[in-house]
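Homework help board

Subject: predicted structure for assignment chain

Our instructor gave us this sequence and asked us to write out the predicted structure in token form, then describe one feature. I got the tokens but I'm not sure how to describe them. Can anyone check?
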Amino acid sequence: MHPPTPTPTTPEPGFNFAYLDEQTKRSVRRALLKAVAIPGHQIPFSSREMPMSYGWGTGGIQVTASVIGQTDTLKVIDQGADDTTNAVNIRRFFRKVCGVETTEQTEAATLIQTRHRIPETALREGQIMVYQVPMPEPLYFIEPSRTEANKMHALEEYGPMYVRLYEDVTRFGHIAIAYDYPVMVHDRYLMKPSPIPRFDNPKLHMSPALQLFGAGREKRIYALPPYTKVKSLDFEDHPFTVESWEQPCEFCGATDTYLDEVVTNDRGDRLWICSDTDYCHQRQQQQTQTPRKLD
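My token output:
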């Protein structure tokens, strides 16, 4: 069974709603509007210090703090799971400074903050996905200079990225990028979809939800408005493919979800389970099973 959904609480006194001051939230929302107007294009913003270190999702948290409202229902996932340290603490943080309702169910959420996964349950209109992004620049490992990378974006000079992919084909026989697989947005901007597995790339295409990406350390925001065309880079003779597994999920038997490999003991025994815990629990409940969790 899912744990009971917490009801809204009174925000902790002494904090502004959603922690950030109103002027900061307005400046972030202005950057978000620019990002939505130019899908895939990175917009600089004045990233603020947060009560956590860079690398723990400060960009996504600032975006969430800028768009969350009193009537929103917040879900936070990390690698698809609702019960990791990162997800639990971010959810607790927003309950403390906003008093909003939180949930672990994708369908019930109006605002979803995520690190590394897109939920298996299809998103719907009206929902907002906020991604925590460590490195927003897709050309960084080809052209470390921000100035030169901006010129390449302006000139739509993405040939070096195709060369990077072609090197994989010559070396491995296929494109070997497993996560952060580069995509072309609306036939114009090259974009990094944050470190989601390439399994999730097709979910970006024509998604009915608004998708916002925040990189706190790099001070960049970008966005995918609803129903935006997103195409993963590939070649005609080496088309884009997603991962597949030879075995189903150990808990729910799903064969069409992204699975995590888990080592269970010192002998190296392992099992594969859905990384999306909410989706896995729903399937187990439909099968009238008692949902299982890792110890």
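Reply (TA_rk): Your tokens look well-formed. For the description, you could write something like this. The helical segments are 22-37, 58-67, 85-98, 146-154, 159-172, 201-204, 277-286. That's the kind of observation they're looking for.
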